[in-house]
């Protein structure tokens, strides 16, 4: 029998439907971030997914949108992971909804965090549940995965697609002084707001049974290092390769210059996500949609 399971990262990304007057006007991606200080869960996505507006020019709608969405719909799995539970965030002017935006939003930082409350019977997978590492050194040519919903496509109506890419610009260089970098990846509409992960294969030794007890005894000071070593059967310590992931940022669209599209994507760094919480700027929609018919 296989011991393989679904990657928790595939439960991390959430498909977001942009709704106006009950009609679907667009699609994006988001993910759940747990803030320890407030003991709260937040939906992280792009500013333009919530508003259909550019963060640097919010008075203008993005091309192709009739208005800002008045609702963001989402789907997650129940705790048994055998059915889908739906919910939504009301963005109408009357809702008085607030979100956190970055202090450099006017300069183009395209990230928001909006507090979200889930029913008690859903599966919530936030960044602290992914078993991530934080010591992968990023460099030009490093492999990445953008985990989202290209053109809104989901596997079995819930699971995201993993699109592979590479870092296309020097991570230490900040274009226009902003904490972002560029990636070479075949991305599409619907992937805005996707989490981006670096990946690295590492060898691990899996301690089991007697070996685990010996190591724990040493950690707890119950046995000496020599006794712990003597209780370990070296023949059972077989290294295995395992992929390790690091959340490096959030994808927000492609680098387009007029009619030129070099197939280069934009990733805002994880540092900016963390700054949403360390330097909180609660904000209401600058141009909130009115209820149709009012």
How would you describe what is shown here?
The protein is mainly beta and 294 residues long. The protein has a single domain, classed as Thrombin, subunit H. The chain is 10% helix and 35% strand. It is built from 4 helices and 14 strands. The strands form 2 sheets. An 8-stranded antiparallel sheet has the order 5-4-1-2-3-7-6-14. A 6-stranded antiparallel β-barrel has the order 8-9-10-13-12-11. The longest helix has 10 residues. The chain starts with 12 loop residues before the first strand and ends in a 10-residue tail after the last strand. The mean pLDDT is 90.
Summary tags:
single chain; Thrombin, subunit H; eight-stranded antiparallel beta sheet; six-stranded antiparallel barrel; 10% helix
Summarize the structure.
This protein is mainly beta and 294 residues long. Helix content is 10%, strand content 35%.
In the CATH hierarchy, the third-tier topology is known as Thrombin, subunit H
Helix content: 10-25%
| Main sheet characteristics | 8 strands, antiparallel
Q: What is the SS-derived class? A: mainly beta
- Largest beta sheet: strand ordering: 5-4-1-2-3-7-6-14
DSSP helix count? 4
Task: Please mark out the parts with pLDDT under 50 across 5 or more consecutive residues, or reply none.
Answer: none
CATH architecture: Beta Barrel
Overall CATH class: Mainly Beta
Give the terminus-to-terminus CA distance. Answer: 59 Å
Count the beta strands: 14
Give the DSSP E fraction (strand runs of 2 or more residues).
Answer: 35-45%
User: What order do the helices and strands follow?
Assistant: EEEHEEEEEEEEHHEEHE
pLDDT averaged residue by residue: 90
Outline: globular
Structural domain tally: 1
- Cα-atom Rg, whole angstroms? 22 Å
């Amino acid at each position: 029998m296989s011991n393989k399971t679904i990657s928790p990262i595939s439960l991390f990304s959430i498909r977001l439907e942009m709704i106006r007057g009950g009609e679907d006007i667009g699609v994006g991606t988001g993910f759940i971030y747990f803030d320890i200080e407030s003991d709260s869960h937040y939906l992280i996505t792009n500013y333009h997914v919530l508003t259909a507006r550019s963060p640097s020019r919010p008075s203008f709608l993005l091309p192709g949108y009739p208005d800002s969405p008045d609702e963001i719909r989402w789907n997650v799995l129940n705790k048994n992971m055998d059915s889908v539970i739906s919910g939504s965030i009301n963005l109408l002017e009357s809702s008085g909804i607030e979100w956190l935006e970055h202090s450099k939003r006017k300069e183009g930082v395209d990230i928001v965090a909006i507090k979200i409350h889930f029913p008690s019977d859903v599966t919530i997978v936030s960044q602290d549940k992914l078993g991530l590492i934080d010591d992968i050194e990023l460099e030009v040519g490093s492999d990445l995965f953008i985990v989202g919903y290209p053109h809104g496509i989901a596997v079995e109506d819930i699971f995201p697609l993993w699109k592979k890419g590479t870092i296309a610009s020097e991570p230490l260089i900040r274009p226009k002084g902003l904490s972002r970098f560029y990636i070479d990846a075949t991305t599409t509409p619907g992937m805005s707001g996707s989490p981006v992960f670096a990946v690295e294969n590492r060898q691990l030794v899996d301690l089991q049974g007697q070996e685990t007890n010996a190591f724990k005894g040493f950690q707890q000071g119950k046995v000496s290092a020599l006794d712990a070593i003597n209780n370990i059967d070296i023949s059972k310590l077989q290294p295995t390769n395992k992929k390790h992931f690091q959340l490096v940022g959030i994808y927000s669209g492609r680098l387009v210059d007029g009619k030129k599209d070099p197939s280069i994507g934009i990733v805002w760094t994880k540092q900016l996500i963390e700054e949403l919480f360390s330097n909180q700027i609660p904000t209401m929609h600058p141009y909130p949609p009115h209820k149709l018919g009012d």
